[in-house]
Amino acid sequence: MTDTPDTDREALERRKDAHLDVVLNEAVGGGGPSIGLGRYTLEYDALPELDLVEVELSVEIFGKRLAAPIVIGAMTGGTARAGEINRRLARAAAKVGVGMALGSQRAMIVKPELSASFAVREAAPDLPLVFGNVGAVQLNYGVDAGAIEAALDAVSADALNLHLNPLQEAVQPEGDTRFSGLSDKIAALVRALRVPVLAKEVGGGISARTAKKLAALPLAGVEVAGTGGTSWAKVESFRGTEGSIQSEIGRRLAGFGVPTGESIVTCREAFGDRVVVGSGGIRTGMDVAVAIALGADVAALAKPLLEAANESEEAAVRALELLVHELRVVCFCTGAKNVRELRRVNVLAV
Ligand SMILES: Cc1cc2nc3c(=O)[nH]c(=O)nc-3n(C[C@H](O)[C@H](O)[C@H](O)COP(=O)(O)O)c2cc1C
Fold this sequence. Notes:
Number of strands: 12
Strand content: 5-15%
Bound molecules: flavin mononucleotide
Largest sheet: 8 strands, parallel, barrel
Order of helices and strands: HEEEEHEHHEHEHHEHEHHHEHEHHHE
Strand order of the largest sheet: 4-5-6-7-8-9-10-11
Helix content: 40-55%
Number of helices: 15
Shape: globular
Low-confidence stretches: none
């Protein structure tokens, strides 16, 4: 062994002592497998036969290149505060090189003066991929393809998330609950728009029954937004007054829907090589990795990035960088050199 210079040796000693202190004083048991998406983990490979620096996480989606298979999930817009959150998220997404989805643009369709709060490309011209957002049910409430096209153009969206949220609407006394005849209207909308359209849940997931109906439409893909993360029935229950029907039903039905992992597998089967976005409770790089190994092309996170952006743009950057780095480590330790290889890693139910 070569001689260690004094300063290096001191640093090494401090590290060794610190190891002892940590092992002696902290709860260092792993507590079982590092679990992604509730009940899955990935097959660990202690001989990955690749270098960490070789792991290449970039992906192409709708002709746009992302540095990692991650999208900031659809959340907000329409108020000054929402505008500030969107700008922070946009700058963070551009810095890290991931995609960003806007919250429902209905507000700006109804009141064009609210458009500025959605203008993420002005805040971050390098943002690689932007999804617009409208509720599919709005097609039954007077919003047409022309209005949606104008809203998408105003934010230079690369794609549209058309959200499906029957549970959320039904829990609200004032909800838009006329969901009849939507399949034909969605098909007509998709044909009228220039950008690719994805159907998206908001936390209730896409079941096999829904996936079959959606896959028959000319959609470019689907975002599962399954159960296990933010529950919109629950969110709406908190909006109702204590003891009200809204509050009680929202609470009772908070977990109604399809778990995210199951929904990803179902949607991959139904959608073939169209885009599948895994979302709903994605919180860690391991969750992202599991979502991809189960069949997603990219994963989207909403609530954790809202929390970070609410703190600061730097906190949002840090949260994204942490996710990307964790994902890189998981790829390395599963022998996956890139996202394509991650898709082939064995998923283990825990
Ligand atoms: C504050 C907030 C607002 C949201 N608004 C929308 C919306 O306008 N349109 C939409 O499609 N989804 C919306 N969602 C749902 C998210 O896009 C996502 O599908 C859901 O929250 C599950 O992901 P999560 O567990 O990572 O939060 C919103 C989520 C949050 C947290």
